[in-house]
Structures are given as C-alpha cells and as structure tokens.
Amino acid sequence: MNGVEAAEEEGAVKMEEEAGERKKLVFMWGYLPGALPQRAPMQSPVLVRVTPSSAFESWKDVCGGGCGFAIATSDSGKLITWGSTDEGQSYVTSGKHGETPESFPLPTDSPIVKAAAGWAHCVSVTDAGEVYTWGWKECVPSGKVFGDSPSGGSLEKDGFERHGSLFTDQVSPNSQGSRSSGGSGSSQDSKGGGDESTKRRKISSAKQTTESSTCSEENMSASPCLVTLSPGVRIATVAAGGRHTLALSDVGQVWGWGYGGEGQLGLGSRIRMVSFPHPIPCVQSSHRKDRMSEAEGFRVPGSYIKEIACGGRHSAVVTDAGALLTFGWGLYGQCGQGSTDDELSPSCVTSLLGIRISGVAAGLWHTACVSADGAVYAFGGNQFGQLGTGSDQAECLPRLLDAPSLENLHAKIISCGARHSAMVTEDGKVFCWGWNKYGQLGQGDAMDRNVPSEVKIDGFVSRNIACGWWHTLLLADAFV
C-alpha cells in the first residue's frame, strides 16, 4: 500500500563489502492463505521457496501485495505473485497462485520494474514506462469520469474528449475549498468532529462492509490492460490504495485515477470516480494549512514529486526538496494537518517543514514517513498501535517515534500495511509494529505491538521491506 522507493545504495552496511557472492532471498509473514499447505497465518518469517517450476531464477524486489496475495519482481523482469486461494478477492484480482510463486501473465513482453496492489486491484510498470492494471473494474481506467461537480452539474464525460485540455493545462477541475468541517488537534479514534464527522463515519462503515465482502463474480473483475496516457508520458513508479491509484512519471508529475470521494485524487472536489488518468497538481498549487493562513496558497518547497504513497482513502507525496504533502480522507488525522478534516487538494504538512522527508508510506488509516537523517514520524489512526508511539491514541500531527528500541538507529525504508507498519534501518535491522492478528509483525505470536519491535532474521542483510494489507515481505541478501 505504498510507493516508497528503496533508499540509495550509498551508506550500505559493511557486510556488503565482504567477499562472497550475494543471493537475494524473500521472506514472508502474516496472512497469505495459499502460501503454505495448511493455509495458516505465518507468525514468524518464512523463506519463500523458488523451485524450477517457478519459471524464474532470482528475485529483484518485493512490492507488498493486497488482501491475501503477495507480489514481487524477478531479475528477469517478471511479475511474481503467490499466496492466494481460489476463494474471494485475491483469486479474482491476482490470479490463482499457491505455495510456489509463479510469473503472472501480462499482455506485454517488456520487463516489469515496479508493481503495487490495493485491496482488490493491481498495477505494474514496464521498463518502457507503460502501466498495466487489473482487478476491480472500478479501479481500471475506462475513459469516463463519474460524479458531481462542485456546482452540482454532472461530471460524466468522455475522458478522451477532454484529453487535450487536461494534459496541456495540468490543472484540476473546479475547486471550492479543500477541506470539510471537522475537529482539530490530537483525537481518540472513537471521537469525531461534529455532524460531518459522524456522517463520514457512517459512510466509512458502509464502505468498509463493501470492501470487506468477497468478490467472486468474474464480471466484477477486469483483465490486465494497458493504461492510456498522454503521448510522451513515461511512468516510473506506482502506488495503489483501497480503490484508487497514483502513478509518478519520470519527470515528477503525479497522475491518478479510481475512487476520489474523499479527495484522495487531489483534484479539489469530491469526484466519486475518475476512470482515466488525470494529472494531479502538487507542487504548483499546494496549500498551507495553519491557524495563521487558512487555505493560503504558497510555494511548496521543491520542483517535482519524487515519492508517492496511497492509503485506504488518502494519499501522500514527497517533493525533491523533502516536503510532505497529503490529501484525502482525514477522519483519523491521517493527513497530518492538525485536524480530522478531509483534504481535497494536496496540502503541505507544515509541521514537518525544515525536516527533509525522504520516504513515505500510508496504511488504511495512518501515515508514516522517514527523514533524511533516519527519524520516523507517524500520524493518523492508532487503534492497534500502528503509529508506534506507545499508546492507542490517534495523532493529527506528525509524531516522532522515540521508542527505546530505536535508540541510535537510523531508519532507511518505511512501509505500511492496513493496520501495521514496518521499517528497515541503515544497518539492516527490521522492525514491525501495530496489528498482529495474522502474525504480520513476525514476532512468533498474535499480540499487537504499539512500539517498534525487532524481527530477528540472523545471517541475512535486509534490503527492502513491503507490507501487504495483512502480511509483510522482506528482501534480503545472503552471502554464499
């Protein structure tokens, strides 16, 4: 559920310099029902076995996965999926893959370099910058926008008729404010912000019921298809949320499509469905949200976007100057703006200005980011300790993680599952915290943790970590 890139190779652990051939391995833990014959959750790290029948030789990276399925890439450029069963959403969206990881069939021979998965849809990027997506049909671009404009008129139009003006102007549709009413300050997850928050909570409950239901009918699923983009646009990486997708081009422009009812597409309004790729203005028109300058436009630090992440119904991006911007659903404070308001346009998290953010990840109701100096900040929902602050209190502003377990350590990579978080430090240590019903923290039990807890994997050097909704994947080096 995130588009966080692995940190640069400089500053790699000393073990890499030792003589010996490196072999990349993948470990998994948590809920992947088809990964083991007994279909039981894995409470401790389990090595993912690659057999001759898997049709690939070595791993390249881990990409997380959705609900009950895992995705990764191979050195040969294949998209590798596994862990699903023949029941429910994971079968429809990721294909039938059991204990042995296999190459997922895509309508292209180009190598896959990046991939992501939401609740029930997947998206991948080729080395040519093309995007393929599949899964729930509402998450797959079809060329139409469905919803109501801020003025009350219909927004259902042929997306390709509007292609020229959208891609030339690089601006969003009509915007009449970027916030809804709500409370402010740090809040308990059980508390709302007035009538609007209560209303949104009821809507949220209904949507959770919908998203939690199984999707077994083939007509609700779309096969892998090429996403139509403006000529010359090359996508570098992607992120997938509950029902929306973000794509980042090689020049730092963000594109989005899918469900946008809470502002998670950053278009300045509550467009219910955007079914074609739409440019999201981030650096150009970010808003500053504080008591002194309510909705006052200002120039956000940076020239382009370098990192993207999708949560359940919110999004986050990072500029080349290290500024963090958020937009979307804010009921639990997951936008980090000091309130429980929704953010309909990209809004700078001003409390982090002056701190250079290098990576960001988003969960169902929370957000976490890592700074260039290795500090971790988290905000949003915290019902299961997914913020790692030592309590279950939600945070509407970024909170520095200062747990004793992280003393003298510097975070390098951060990732978020639905209700858990994970990170890798500069010296290769792995930490997880939050919800642990299915063992997704890798601690050998099913107890939640509200502070970062180390996952012990001896004899390997951790390279990247990626959370699925209810599981965790780790890419590691073994020296042979």
Compact description:
By secondary structure, the chain is mainly beta. 6% of the residues lie in helices and 38% in strands.
Report on this structure.
By secondary structure, the protein is mainly β. It contains three helices and 32 strands. The strands form seven sheets. It has a six-stranded antiparallel sheet, with no helix packed on it. A hairpin with a 3-residue loop joins strand 19 (about 305-310) and strand 20 (about 315-320). The longest helix is centred in the middle third of the chain and has 18 residues, at about 195-210. It is globular and about 55 Å long. The model is unreliable at about 5-20, about 90, about 145-215 and about 290-295 (pLDDT under 50).
Secondary structure elements and pairings:
Elements: E1 22-30, E2 42-47, E3 59-66, E4 69-74, E5 79-82, H1 89-94, E6 102-103, E7 112-117, E8 121-126, E9 131-136, E10 144-146, E11 157-158, H2 163-169, H3 195-212, E12 221-226, E13 235-240, E14 244-249, E15 254-259, E16 273-280, E17 287-288, E18 296-297, E19 305-310, E20 314-319, E21 324-328, E22 343-348, E23 357-362, E24 366-371, E25 376-380, E26 395-400, E27 411-416, E28 420-425, E29 430-434, E30 449-455, E31 461-467, E32 471-479
Parallel strand pairs: 17-22
Antiparallel strand pairs: 1-2, 1-32, 3-4, 4-5, 5-6, 7-8, 8-9, 9-12, 10-11, 10-16, 13-14, 14-15, 15-16, 17-18, 19-20, 20-21, 21-22, 23-24, 24-25, 25-26, 27-28, 28-29, 29-30, 31-32
